Amino acid sequence: MTGIDGKVVAITGAGSGIGAASALFLASRGAKLVLGGRRSDRLKALGARIEAEGGTAAWTTADVRRRGDLANLVAYACERYGALDVLVSNAGIGPISPFDELRVEDWDQMIDVNFRGVLHGIAAALPVFRKQGRGQFVNVVSTAGLRIVPNQAVYAATKNAVRTVSEGLRQEAGPDLRVTMVSPGYVATEFADSVTSPTVKSQTPAVDFSLSPDDIARAVAYAIEQPSNVDVGDIVVRPTAQS
């Protein structure tokens, strides 16, 4: 038995990367997973893998840009398992670029997915957590918000907006709810695929010291497995070689 065993955990952006790794790790520790994401084929495959390995998982498509999708994800968790203990807001994109390229549509996408998507999750899960008298938000942020560098200002701004909202929510949450931020550094995921700027693509150096998504999954699990009176506020996980 662990502090994770039996908990119902919903994860956004669960189709790949940190979301998928977290789902697999938490399922191995006894959590009941509800997988949310845009790519139904990946969610179905991940759910089948978890079940084949002896875990428990359900899935439903969810685009965090749509408030109704997050409401449906939370409602599905409650209908399927009778409760929701943890919402991991992991979905994120990073089409970073220099300001001079004026990629306003990319800025809007980052705001909608990285920031507004987290707000949609809070709006969906908070009433459920209040009614239950328990619950935990785990918001995946980024070290990009801790050290601002060229080309990443808008991306960092969306992550720092989540950081601000998370801290405010923690202060309002009271003794029964928990709020955790997990800030990954370089992680080997599909993140780079969302970059649309030729300038950034041509200047991006090869990084051979990235963490595995599994490394972040363990950090997520650490926050969840703590006793109910322990609120792990912020976990920064970066490669030892990252500046």
Task: Summarize the helices and strands and which ones pair or pack.
Layout lengths: L7 E4 L5 H12 L3 E6 L2 H13 L3 E6 L5 H15 L4 E4 L14 H29 L2 E6 L12 H21 L3 E8 L13 H6 L9 H13 L8 E4 L6
Parallel strand pairs: 1-2, 1-4, 2-3, 4-5, 5-6, 6-7
Protein model, in words:
This protein has 243 residues and is an alpha/beta fold. Helix content is 45%, strand content 16%. The protein is built from 7 helices and 7 strands. Strands 3-2-1-4-5-6-7 form a 7-stranded parallel sheet, sandwiched between helices. The longest helix has 29 residues, at 104-132. The chain is globular. The termini are far apart. The relative contact order is 0.16.
In the predicted model, the low-confidence regions spanning at least 5 consecutive residues are none
Overall residue-averaged pLDDT value: 94
- Span between termini: 38 Å
Strand content: 15-25%
Number of strands: 7
Structural class given helices, strands, pairing?
alpha/beta
Helix content: 40-55%
Cα-based radius of gyration, to the nearest Å:
17 Å
What count of helical segments does DSSP give?
7
The main β sheet shows up as: 7 strands, parallel
Overall body shape: globular
Oligomer: single chain
What is the element string, with H for helices and E for strands?
EHEHEHEHEHEHHE
Strand arrangement across the biggest beta sheet: 3-2-1-4-5-6-7
